[in-house]
């Protein structure tokens, strides 16, 4: 059995400056709180938080996470959050609070709720990624002690692990926990199939191990002879991974089990490709099986080369080749990023390996905006909320959304007649801000119609559009179409951000000297070739221009402008910058068509976003939100109508 001293020793190995007094204090408090409780196994309860904290040392997590792990069940056992805050400070208290809320949230989740949404919901409600990692460690230990619980409970907890937590671990790239969760869950969910596979593994294990070991040594020796500094690992496949492959590829146990899996771990990327060449000279590659996840990382940060070869005796060998660092990422996923990010005092972590820089490096290889957004999802979730209809359907909304947004998300009829709402069974106004996990029931009335002030409350573009449309159709707000225009002309005009008095078919250029933004007072200068440069009225070039050959023209922002615009943002490069901007955009319910970022100069980043705007107000609102983000230096429009 592990003790608090074992834990402290493990921590000191990776963090010599750990606050051992604080950790010991957390342990003492937890032990006192759980004193009268026992685990189902009969062991004292404190064993559980202690082991959860112990697992976190694998991820080299910080003092706050370790303390939060030790205290993670304390609130449920009667410890007061205020007291926790007093004794351990804001950071630890907020981690423990997050973990407690996650438990409450899960209790609300019914079987009928869509699994994917529950996963998202869990990710969203944990505003600190450390909460999820602690939760996964908690889950892992609960799974490892599952045999002590009653049969019906076993099944429920196992399927929860398989369907909710293992995929979360996968998405965050924490293979180490994902693999264990799946294997244990498999054992409880499909006991017969598990036993069948287990018997076969035990029977063939020794023979297999010796073949693996032989090929492993052979390969390692060859690579080293050829000057590759590396280590080669051979391993048996896990029960569940064999089972999954049997199902997916419709193969027999032997066909899967007889494949030898080797992993080459090198010191640098170059050596990965060199090793691949050496392996191909040694053994015969099977065509079409090579995959380069180094150049094209998976969305969960996984990077590695994959290939399948056959040795002289006909043994099929699956090889994975990656660097030490990639291996760490493959096992620990975001948790390893987290370690890089936080270990500021530790010189061995290269600070340049920031979240942002990696995203930007990888982005070059990611083909579509969708993939890109998937990659960012973890951060992205932070500004989304997930609420339920009374029937258990999950509705995804931006943070700050109200029952009106919810009503329009369901159906515009419900939105138009929304009169009030019940949130978690309690009457609420249409203004009340919704929170993840809320069950929302909209009360409608035939007499109710959309109100003008709703426009100020709603957060989604959809609701705003519908409300505006209704108000326009019923003459409550003016329709801004100009008379005598054909539909085509109207469409065309909507694509132009700026209208110029008396000139048609002009080319608009936003002046580089003052970079006008929507809402700024502007003036145009027309050249003979119909190019009109737009300046801010307070631009210091105006005086010179007025003396020049160009004609001064009256220009104005088009309010019902509707087109894709390219927005550029210059900022001081820092961890999480890109995600912050995307979050801000997502929070307004706006879709980003393309996003991209690059480093300029020493510590500056230039981010580019192509965004489809609904109108000028929309753009103005978004620009002002982006400007308020920390470290943003400049926001400007680089292209209109892309
Ligand atoms: Mn627990």
Describe the structure.
There is one protein chain. With 642 residues, the chain is an alpha+beta fold. 48% of the residues lie in helices and 18% in strands. It has 25 helices and 21 strands. The strands form 6 sheets. Strands 1, 2, 3, 4, 5 and 6 form a 6-stranded mixed β-sheet that branches. Strand 5 (305-310) and strand 6 form a beta hairpin. The protein is globular, with a radius of gyration of 29 Å. It starts with a helix and ends with a strand.
Features:
642 residues, alpha+beta, four-stranded mixed sheet, 25 helices, 18% strand, binds manganese (II) ion
Q: Structural class of the secondary structure composition?
A: alpha+beta
Q: Shape, please?
A: globular
Oligomer: single chain
Number of helices, counting only DSSP H or I runs of 4 residues or more: 25
Question: Which ligands, by name, code or SMILES, are bound?
Answer: manganese (II) ion
Task: State the end-to-end CA separation.
Answer: 63 Å
Taken as a percent bin, the fraction of beta residues is 15-25%
Structure summary, number of beta strands? 21
- Low-confidence parts lasting 5 or more residues at pLDDT below 50? 338-381
Mean pLDDT: 82
Q: Which bin fits the share of residues in helices?
A: 40-55%
Q: Main beta sheet: strand number and arrangement? A: 6 strands, mixed
- Radius of gyration, Cα only, in angstroms? 29 Å
